[in-house]
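Protein 1 of 2
SEQ + STRUCT:
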Amino acid sequence: MFNKSFITNLIAVIACALGWFLQIDWLLAMALFALSGALTNWIAIHMLFEKVPGLYGSGIIQIKFEQFKAGIKTLIMEQFFTVENFNKFLSEKSGQAHHFNLKPIISDTDMTPAFDSLVATIKQSSFGSMLEMFGGDAALVPLKEPFIEKLKSSVIEITESEQFAEKLKASVSSEQNITDMMNKVELLVEQRLEELTPAMVKDIIQQMIKSHLGWLVVWGGVFGGLIGLLAHVLNF
């Protein structure tokens, strides 16, 4: 991709040289004004991103990067992670409670503690002494896998019910819980933004608007040239 700024300034310089050597006054005036406009805009854009010794206000993107980070955080929190958006996420368009897919989590959960708790409960009950007659804990081991499989199936079935979804929505969408979630999201955003450096902020902004800023140089040259031509015609 060609550099619009460089091409514009190069054309203006060549036009200046031609106007000077060929003694074409209107071309020289037009080219000088075009070079002035293009070069001034190019320097201004360069100063926006780079610190130039002796030029106050240059490198403003890097100098003010803390304000840029704060602006990014404000944009994220106020535009995306709002109470309204959290509530909207928790509900389908139909107004029904959002059904969270908890099946993968439940399937990967270790249910062994639940089985151990069941064994402990049996041992502490009136069936404990009877269990000892049939081999103690070892007698229940064959029941472990069927019990865990059935437990997971039952829990999944419960979480997929409308009643569970409504209760989950009511719990999660309470103002206090949403506030807690927003605080956690805000903390996460802050932590991620802290990883940004002035150079990274400069690169991010530069990449987003570099191509558009290049047109400032082009139009600076165009309008500068037109002003120069007008000045020559009016004998200024």
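Protein 2 of 2
SEQ + STRUCT:
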Amino acid sequence: MAELVFFSGTMDCGKSTLALQMDHNHRARGRGGVRFSRNDRAGESRISSRLGLQTDAVEVLDSTDFWDEVMRRRTQGQRVDYLICDEAQFYSPAQVEQLAKVVDEIDVDVFAFGITADFRTRLFPGSQRLIELADRVQVLQVEALCWCGRRATHNARTVDGVMVTEGAQVVVGDVDMAGPAATAAADHIPVVGYETLCRRHYMRRVTAHGAALMAGQDQLLPFDVDACLWRGSGAF
């Protein structure tokens, strides 16, 4: 029987890598599928992994209807046995319900991959609906790491290296930056970045950049000090 499966985790835990591997495995067994993604780091209509793997995909728009997407392809004679849905946190709740309908009504497997919570630790609407409707929710076992070496559990947004907890839920940023190296360039345009943190350093708002600054100023690292009281944490 077909299933709706939601593979979730923080950034850097291998969601897109697994999506590409699953697509490869199913195609190797003669199954036909369609890859979908939205707001991928490599650009429109792509699924990309930080390991360097990437392939083409159908870009999900606000107007995308997954039921129509599958039925149109089947009407044209294309075999559709499964869907790979990357960056599923950006899908609307209505689109997630369409995916559930595809599973239940025409027996198509749906493998969705996405981040559960945003930089404010609030559920993305698409992820929330997937948790509510999925046959299975699997947390990926590859652990992303905080700068301190602990398991990362939260996604943090930074502006010029300082962690922020307010702003629009979806903002494109640099996921590979450890610090605001480009801050001084381009007329001081704020540099938006993302990194994964353990709960301790997320709550204290200490990013890799902030920890490096504190160490360079001969200040105690946040093992013995409330780093939220440090001005670089953004709490002031």
